[in-house]
UniProtKB/TrEMBL annotation:
Methyltransferase found in the keyword field: yes
Family membership: Belongs to the methyltransferase superfamily. L-isoaspartyl/D-aspartyl protein methyltransferase family.
UniProt entry tagged with the keyword Kinase: no
Gene3D superfamilies: Vaccinia Virus protein VP39
GO-annotated molecular function: protein-L-isoaspartate (D-aspartate) O-methyltransferase activity
Keywords for the protein's UniProt record, in alphabetical order: Methyltransferase, Transferase
Transmembrane segments: none
Pfam families linked: PCMT (PF01135)
Superkingdom, taxonomy of origin: Bacteria
Protein's recorded name: Protein-L-isoaspartate O-methyltransferase
GO biological process, one term: methylation
GO CC terms: cytoplasm
């Protein structure tokens, strides 16, 4: 039987710390949340490998290091209400629940959302829940949010997500695809949003955010 606790410690030491993750709260949370619970059974032995893991044809769990860098950039604190976009089965929501006051996770795949809520319940996580719905629409009924994190690369951030961001709130998103994706930190001030490019990352694509192609005849 795999020693998942040992695998988690190795992940923290060999993947997170070496990727510049210095926030002890993130390191502690990711050392405790059982990542293997959130992936298909046949992927469980590889849950702590330094790679993205397919959850379904349309959703992929980002590597632990890539995810941790997004969270560290967002500077999530214990008073924050977080919108976690494209959460899959909820691993990201489980980690964020250790850092934030509350987490509203959003997933367009109803099967993954239902499974994720079952996993969160099994782990007795009471301050995070997954909402099934179009991820590009956000969750306006729960807005405003202090932090919005997109769990994958996108062509553009939908205006609805900025609208649901609190004044002074932060949104973290990777723009582009493949290794060329650049993670940006967006900060909202009044009706204005300022963007700062931070680092490159290889993240799964959130296909629902892809810009529609224009055909020229």
């Amino acid at each position: 039987m795999a020693d998942f606790a040992r695998a988690r410690r190795t992940m923290v030491d060999n993947q997170l710390r070496t990727s510049g993750i210095t926030n002890w709260r993130i390191l502690d949370a990711m050392n405790r949340v059982p990542r293997e619970k959130f992936v298909p059974d046949h992927h469980a032995p590889f849950a702590y490998s330094d790679e993205n893991i397919s959850l379904s044809p349309r959703r992929t769990l980002a590597s632990a290091a890539s995810f941790a860098r997004l969270v560290q950039l967002a500077e999530v604190n214990s008073q924050d209400v977080v919108l976690d976009v494209g959460c899959g089965t909820g691993y990201s929501a489980a980690v964020l629940s250790n850092l934030a006051n509350a987490v509203v996770a959003l997933e367009s795949d109803e099967v993954l959302a239902a499974k994720g809520n079952d996993i969160l319940a099994d782990l007795d996580i009471g301050n995070a829940a997954i909402v099934a719905g179009p991820i590009e629409a956000g969750v306006p009924r729960e807005a405003p949010f202090d932090v919005v994190i997109l769990e994958g690369a996108v062509d553009a951030v939908p205006p609805a997500l900025f609208e649901q961001l609190r004044d002074g709130g932060r949104l973290v998103a990777a723009m582009g695809t493949g290794n060329a994706a650049v993670v940006h930190l967006f900060v909202k001030t009044g009706t204005d949003v300022a963007s700062t490019a931070s680092f490159n990352a290889s993240l799964p694509v959130l296909g629902q955010f892809a810009q529609k192609e224009e055909f020229v005849f």
